[in-house]
Design a protein that fits this description.
Distance between the termini: 53 Å
Shape: globular
Number of helices: 13
Bound molecules: pyridoxal-5'-phosphate
Largest sheet: 7 strands, mixed
Number of strands: 13
Length: 390
């Protein structure tokens, strides 16, 4: 009998983090004072100049289809940003504006992956890469990085995952969930690996690129001219400019790649709302607001981590970027699901179990520190009380 549904979709696993969040919601509905640190978004409002611009363009009636890969003025502004801030050379016609970075990643995977192709990704990894690969008939191949090696990329670990069928490698720096940035040394390893495999494409998800601490800079792999023509750079406005709900992102890649992606885009998206694109262009000029938010995450990180590291059995390594505390909790041989569940029930604190991000997340729990400071302090106190009981 013919299958009713696409088995690539029916085979997808439900999200472990969403299940935990649903449980937290239930507990909140029962009147319990749950502190939710499971989210993945800035706790700031979108800066006023951006919302102002959106309202103005909406009132002007800028509400029709915008033909093309995105408004030329936004793509030009992004090309300038990528050049000035990331050292990346892309022309406006090598940029596509998408509804969120997530959609940029999905479009790129759909465009590249044929059934049975292998896609390597670094584990621990953001929870959506694997389902996106599988939804497109690809085989997701984890490159499990080691907590004890501070999740550093090595040539050997990449090579061990590579086969004749490998089409694409996905990386994400600054990293969700670990908070690691891509160092120069690791970028060189990646370049060497790409040069050894001349048909491999690299997708670099740089969505947290503006959220870096202590003067760190995360390297954009496409700055290496030797591999530039095989890199897709993904970025967006959600995290850096607090625009998660606007669904504004983009990808940049050589024309021979964007030309193929744009075909799928035309038949599935048509365009991103014009007034939102006008507003997003303003977002790239909100330098002071972006820096204020970044600094606030950094300050909260410092205070939260001091408290976390004072808890017995807890190791919270200081993240170089993004806004997540990736905390190793070693108590009674409990796995990360058991620990996250224990903290929810005993401390009423919600974090995401590390194994939701892959094998490399064993014993870890992810907490967002894009959360009010008093909540972070209270959460750390409650976690200490709960964990000290074990
Ligand atoms: N990539 C990573 C690593 C993320 O954490 C997220 C959001 O959580 C995204 C991409 C997608 O962001 P958006 O679609 O909001 O641009």
């Amino acid at each position: 009998m013919q299958e009713l549904f696409n088995h690539n979709i029916t085979g997808l696993a439900p999200s472990a983090s969403i299940q935990l969040m649903a449980k937290a919601k239930e507990m909140q509905a029962q009147g319990l004072n749950v502190i939710n640190l499971a989210g993945g978004e800035p706790d700031f409002d979108t800066p006023a100049p951006i919302t102002q611009a959106a309202m103005e363009w909406l009132q002007k009636g800028f509400t029709h289809y915008t033909v093309g890969q995105g408004l030329p003025e936004l793509r030009s502004r992004i090309a300038k940003k990528l050049q000035e801030e990331n050292g990346l050379s892309y022309s406006p016609d090598e940029i596509i504006i998408t509804p969120g970075g997530k959609n940029a990643i999905f479009l790129a995977i759909s465009t590249l992956v044929n059934a049975g192709d292998e896609v390597m990704f670094l584990d621990p990894a953001w929870v959506s890469y694997v389902p996106m690969i599988q939804a497109n008939g690809g085989i997701a191949v984890p490159v499990v990085l080691d907590y004890d090696q501070d999740y550093r990329i090595t040539y050997d670990v990449l090579e061990a995952a590579y086969t004749e069928k490998t089409k694409l490698l996905i990386i994400n720096y600054p990293n969700n969930p670990t908070g690691r940035i891509l160092t120069k040394a690791e970028a060189e390893i990646l370049s060497d690996f790409m040069l050894a495999h001349p048909s491999l494409i690299l997708m670099s998800d740089e969505i947290y690129e503006r959220i870096v601490f202590d003067g760190n800079v995360s390297v954009s792999p496409a700055t290496d001219k030797r591999i530039w023509d095989r890199v897709i750079t993904v970025n967006g406005f959600s995290k850096s400019v607090a625009m998660t709900g606007w669904r504004m992102g983009y990808l940049a890649a050589p024309k021979y790649i964007t030309a193929q992606i744009y075909k799928l885009y035309q038949h599935s998206i048509t365009c991103v709302s014009g007034f939102l694109q006008k507003a997003a262009a303003v977002g790239l000029d909100c330098t002071a607001e972006i820096e204020m938010m970044r600094k606030s995450y950094e300050d909260r990180r410092n205070i939260f981590f001091e408290k976390l590291n004072a808890i017995d059995g807890v190791e919270a390594r200081i993240p170089e970027g993004a806004f997540y505390a990736w905390v190793k909790i070693e108590k009674k041989d409990m796995d990360s699901f058991q620990i996250a569940n224990y903290l929810l029930e005993e401390a009423l604190v919600v974090g995401v179990p590390g194994e939701a991000y892959g094998k490399g997340g064993a014993k870890c729990v992810r907490f967002s520190f894009a959360t009010a400071l008093d909540q972070l302090l209270e959460a750390a106190d409650r976690m200490k009380t709960a964990l000290d009981k074990l």
